[in-house]
C-alpha cells in the first residue's frame, strides 16, 4: 500500500495531482492511501480534496482559517490542522510518494523533510531546486530519498536521458513558448498589464508561473533547475523558442543523436509520469496528432525581449548562494508587478541589481548548507530587491515627469 501526500493540493499542479490520485485509487483501491493534503488559504478546495481522497490530515497554512477548515471537514474523519509548523509535521508523517506543489520558497522545508524520511519527492516547486539544489540532492542521497522532476521540461529531459550518464550529454535544450507577450513590439512591453501577461498561448497554469512565462523568468529558473538536477555544465544548457509547446525538451548526446520528448501541453502528463514511475500507465491526456499540427517551429530567443535568460547565466556563473538570491529577488519583483507597483520591464532590472549588489559584497560566495542559510540569503535578497524596486520607481517616475 503506497502512502501519498500532496503539498499545495489546492493549486494548479496540486489539484491535477488530486484528480490523478483519486482516479488511481478508484481503479485500484488497495494500492494507495492518502496521508496528508495541504493548502495555503483555499479552505473549500482543500476540504474537497481531503474528503475525495479520504486523507488522514488536511493542513491549511493560514492559521486564521483553521475554524473554517474544521467546519468543512466535520464528520469526514480527516484531522484538521493549520500553520507552517503543522505543514512540517504533516511532512514528517511517513509517506512513500510526496508531491511538492507549494509555490515559492515555502515549498522548500516540507520537501526537505520528506526527503529526510526517504520519500520519493515529485518536485514541481521550482524555487526549491533553484535556491537549494545541492542541499536537496544531498538530503535525498543521505536518506535514500529520490527526486522525480514534475516540471514538464525536466520530466522530458529525465525521460530522454534514461540511464545515460551525464558524460554522454553534449547539450540540454529547454523549449519555451515565449509566453503571452512573445509577439508584442518591444517598445510596448513596458506597458504590459498583469491581464496581458495572463493570456498564455498554450498552457493553463497558476498566476505567478504564467507571468514568469511571459518574462521568461520561468525558463531562467528552469535553466538553473536543469543544472542542479542533471549536473550538466551551464554552457551546455540552451533555450529555444518553440511556439507550439509540443516538444517539451531535448537531450543531445555526444554521439550526435538528439532525443526529444513530445506531447500535448498538459501537466497531467508530467504529474502522471512521476506518479506512475517507473511504470507507464494510461493517463487522461489527449494523444499527439502530428499531421494535424503540420509543423513545429524553433527560434533563438531575443535576449533584449527576454533578459531573464542572461540573468540566469549570471546566477549560474556566480554559483554559491546566487540561486537563492535570484529566486527571492524575482519573487519580490513579481509581487510588485502583480500589485501594480512596477512595470513589466522593470522586473529584470530589479533582479540584476540585486544579484550585482549581493555578489559585490561577497554575500553569495558560499552555497547554502542548511535551511537557515537559504532563508538568510532569501531575506537579504528581499531587502536589496526592495531597495532596487524603490530605485526603479524613482527612475521611471522621473522619466514620466
Ligand atoms: P498555484 O499558485 O496554482 O498553487 C500554489 C499552491 O501553494 C496552492 O496550493 C497554495 O495554496 C499553496 N501555497 C501558497 N503559499 C503557501 C504558503 N505560504 N504555505 C503553504 N502553501 C502555500 O501554483 P502552481 O500549481 O502553478 O505551481 C506550484 C509550483 O509548481 C510552483 O513552484 C510552480 O513554479 C511549479 N510549476 C507549476 C506548473 C504549472 O503548470 N502550474 C508547471 C511546472 C512547475 P492556496 O491556493 O490554498 O492559497
The amount of beta strand, in percent, is 5-15%
Stretches where pLDDT is under 50 for at least 5 consecutive residues are none
Q: How many strands?
A: 11
Shape: globular
Order of helices and strands: EHEHEHEHEHEHEHEHHHEEEHHHHHH
Oligomeric state of shown chains? single chain
Secondary-structure-derived class: alpha/beta
Helix content bin: 40-55%
Bound molecule kinds, no repeats: NADPH dihydro-nicotinamide-adenine-dinucleotide phosphate
Distance between the termini: 66 Å
Q: Mean of residue pLDDT?
A: 96
Radius of gyration: 21 Å
Report the biggest beta sheet as strand number plus sense, adding barrel if it closes. 7 strands, parallel
- Sheet with the most strands: spatial strand order: 4-3-2-1-5-6-7
Total count of helical runs of at least 4 residues: 16
For this entry, give a set of tags.
alpha/beta, binds NADPH dihydro-nicotinamide-adenine-dinucleotide phosphate
Write the layout of secondary structure elements.
Blueprint: E1 2-7, H1 12-27, E2 32-39, H2 43-53, E3 57-60, H3 66-73, E4 79-82, H4 84-92, E5 97-100, H5 108-116, E6 120-123, H6 126-143, E7 146-149, H7 152-161, E8 169-176, H8 194-197, H9 207-215, H10 217-230, E9 237-241, E10 247-253, E11 258-262, H11 267-276, H12 290-293, H13 307-318, H14 322-338, H15 346-360, H16 371-400
Parallel strand pairs: 1-2, 1-5, 2-3, 3-4, 5-6, 6-7, 8-9
Antiparallel strand pairs: 8-10, 10-11
Bound molecules: NADPH dihydro-nicotinamide-adenine-dinucleotide phosphate (NDP).
Amino acid at each position: 500500500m503506497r502512502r501519498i501526500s500532496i503539498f499545495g493540493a489546492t493549486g494548479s499542479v496540486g489539484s491535477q495531482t488530486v484528480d490523478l490520485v483519486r482516479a488511481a485509487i478508484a481503479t485500484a483501491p488497495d494500492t494507495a492511501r492518502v496521508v496528508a493534503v495541504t493548502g495555503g488559504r483555499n479552505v473549500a478546495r482543500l476540504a474537497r480534496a481531503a474528503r475525495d481522497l479520504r486523507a488522514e490530515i488536511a493542513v491549511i497554512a493560514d492559521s486564521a482559517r483553521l475554524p473554517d477548515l474544521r467546519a468543512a471537514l466535520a464528520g469526514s474523519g480527516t484531522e484538521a490542522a493549520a500553520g507552517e509548523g503543522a505543514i512540517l509535521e504533516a511532512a514528517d508523517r511517513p509517506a512513500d510518494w510526496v508531491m511538492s506543489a507549494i509555490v515559492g520558497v515555502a515549498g522548500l522545508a516540507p520537501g526537505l523533510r520528506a526527503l529526510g524520511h526517504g520519500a520519493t519527492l515529485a518536485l514541481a516547486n521550482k524555487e526549491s531546486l533553484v535556491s537549494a539544489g545541492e542541499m536537496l540532492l544531498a538530503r535525498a542521497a543521505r536518506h535514500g530519498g529520490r527526486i522525480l522532476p514534475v516540471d514538464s521540461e525536466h520530466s522530458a529531459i529525465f525521460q530522454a536521458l534514461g540511464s545515460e550518464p551525464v558524460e554522454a550529454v553534449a547539450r540540454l535544450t529547454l523549449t519555451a513558448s515565449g509566453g503571452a507577450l512573445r509577439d508584442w513590439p518591444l517598445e510596448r512591453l513596458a506597458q504590459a498589464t498583469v491581464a496581458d501577461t495572463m493570456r498564455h498561448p498554450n498552457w493553463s497554469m497558476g498566476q505567478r508561473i504564467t507571468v514568469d512565462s511571459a518574462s521568461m523568468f520561468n525558463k531562467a529558473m528552469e535553466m538553473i533547475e536543469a543544472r542542479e538536477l542533471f549536473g550538466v555544465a551551464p554552457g551546455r544548457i540552451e533555450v529555444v523558442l518553440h511556439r507550439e509547446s509540443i516538444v517539451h525538451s531535448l537531450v543531445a548526446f555526444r554521439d550526435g543523436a538528439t532525443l526529444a520528448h513530445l506531447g500535448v501541453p498538459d501537466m497531467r502528463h508530467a504529474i502522471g509520469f512521476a506518479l506512475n514511475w517507473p511504470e507507464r500507465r494510461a493517463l487522461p491526456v489527449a494523444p499527439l496528432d502530428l499531421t494535424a499540427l503540420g509543423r513545429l517551429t524553433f527560434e533563438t530567443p531575443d535576449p533584449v525581449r527576454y533578459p531573464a535568460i542572461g540573468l540566469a547565466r549570471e546566477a549560474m556563473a556566480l554559483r554559491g548562494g546566487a540561486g537563492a538570491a535570484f529566486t527571492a529577488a524575482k519573487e519580490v519583483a513579481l509581487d510588485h508587478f502583480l500589485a501594480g507597483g512596477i512595470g513589466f520591464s522593470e522586473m529584470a532590472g530589479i533582479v540584476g541589481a540585486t544579484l550585482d549588489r549581493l555578489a559585490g559584497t561577497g554575500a553569495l560566495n558560499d552555497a547554502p548548507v542548511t535551511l537557515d542559510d537559504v532563508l538568510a540569503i532569501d531575506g537579504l535578497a528581499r531587502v536589496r530587491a526592495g531597495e532596487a524596486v524603490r530605485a526603479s520607481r524613482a527612475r521611471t517616475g522621473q522619466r514620466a515627469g
